[in-house]
Structures are given as C-alpha cells and as structure tokens.
C-alpha cells in the first residue's frame, strides 16, 4: 500500500529531535514527526503535592500538562482548557509514571509540559515519546551528588498511533489518515515491548482479534524504532544502560 505521503504501511514519519531547545527548564526537547511538532520541557521541584507531603516517608511524583497553541491547528484553537486536553495530559502522566521508581526519585516533583506547536496527528503519542527524553534530561540536572538519575527508571517508554485505513493496518497516522481511519488506536509501550496502555476505537468499522494483533505488532515495531531514537538522542544519559547502574 502506498500512502498519500509516499510512506509504506509500516513506516514512521520522519523524526527530528532538537535538544537542548530554548528555555530555562532543565529538560527541554523539540520533537517532530512529519509536520507534528511538540516542545516537551521538564522541571524539577522539591515542592510535593499536599497528599504526598502527608505521607510518613514522602517519595517523588511525576505529572504532565498538555496544551495546543492556538495556531497549532486550523481553525484556531482556543486557549481554554477542554476535556480532550485533560484526558491527554492524564495519559502522558500515567505513561511516564509507569516507568519511574518513586523511591529512587526521592521527594521531588517533576512536571513535564508538552506544548503542541503544530498538530498533524499523533500529538499525544509524540508527547509521551518526547516527554520521556525531557524527563531523563531534567533529572540529570539535579544538583545532588547522592542522587543517581539512572536508578529512577525501571524502563523506557514511547508511544505511537496505528490504525486501519482503507482496510489496511498502518503505522503512525497523520491527520488526514486519522480523519479517514476505520479503526484508530494509540499504543504506549516500554522499550522491552511491555504494554502500558492501549486506546483503540472502531471509528467507522468493527475489527477482529486478528486485526487487533496485527495493529499491536505494527505498534511494537514502531516503538522499537522510537526507542532506538531515544537511545541515540540521550547517549550516555540513556537510563537502561545497566552497566552504569549501582
């Protein structure tokens, strides 16, 4: 199958990463997949949420915020918070927390902000993939000689969209494909292939268990490539290098 942008069915959009990007946050990365462009920044604070402070031995926490800039899509998107944005930022937060050891993080609060500069499909999945890079970078800037950022991560995490378009399973949908998809799915997985979250909907067509398995296989192959991109980007900061862990 030849897609409208010339990609094969199992091909990711062209990826581009800039880090550190401008700004004052200790972790900041600009990630692009095709035309979708997101600024992910991560900030570390010792000001824990009240419910964490109330614990006998408080551990850390990771939260996320997601926003689309008004000019990121047409027509203009209002700056007002909406249900979709709230749902997406909860997904991002859940996905990042799934790979974090809060005991190793210590009493620190990390906020990962994902601001969509241009939206062309797959914003939530790209935010997770880029947010992980920003999170790793931010923790490497913590000024505490006793703190080892690599010990904070149990796994890496990345995410990608898959779907069925014109009867064919495809990887990494852009907006036109997402709009026309009979089935739309987002998969969040660790670098070792374990599932964190799967969101799948029969938009226009019901789908079989066989098709579900095909979509998950496609997502797994895409996430393997995204994980390699994260590894290449982070270099020595890649947290899954067990030889550097104590």
TrEMBL record:
Transmembrane stretches, start-end: none
Residues engaged in binding phosphate: 84, 122-124
Residue ranges constituting the Exoribonuclease phosphorolytic domain according to the UniProt record: 11-138, 157-221
Pfam entry (one): RNase_PH
E.C. no: 2.7.7.56
The keyword DNA repair belongs to this UniProt entry's keyword annotation: no
GO MF annotation, one: tRNA nucleotidyltransferase activity
Domain of life: Bacteria
One of the GO BP terms on file: rRNA 3'-end processing
Enzyme class: transferase
Keywords of this entry: Nucleotidyltransferase, RNA-binding, rRNA processing, Transferase, tRNA processing, tRNA-binding
This protein's record includes keyword tRNA-binding: yes
HAMAP family attached to this UniProt entry: RNase_PH (MF_00564)
Job of this protein: Phosphorolytic 3'-5' exoribonuclease that plays an important role in tRNA 3'-end maturation. Removes nucleotide residues following the 3'-CCA terminus of tRNAs; can also add nucleotides to the ends of RNA molecules by using nucleoside diphosphates as substrates, but this may not be physiologically important. Probably plays a role in initiation of 16S rRNA degradation (leading to ribosome degradation) during starvation.
Protein name per UniProt: Ribonuclease PH
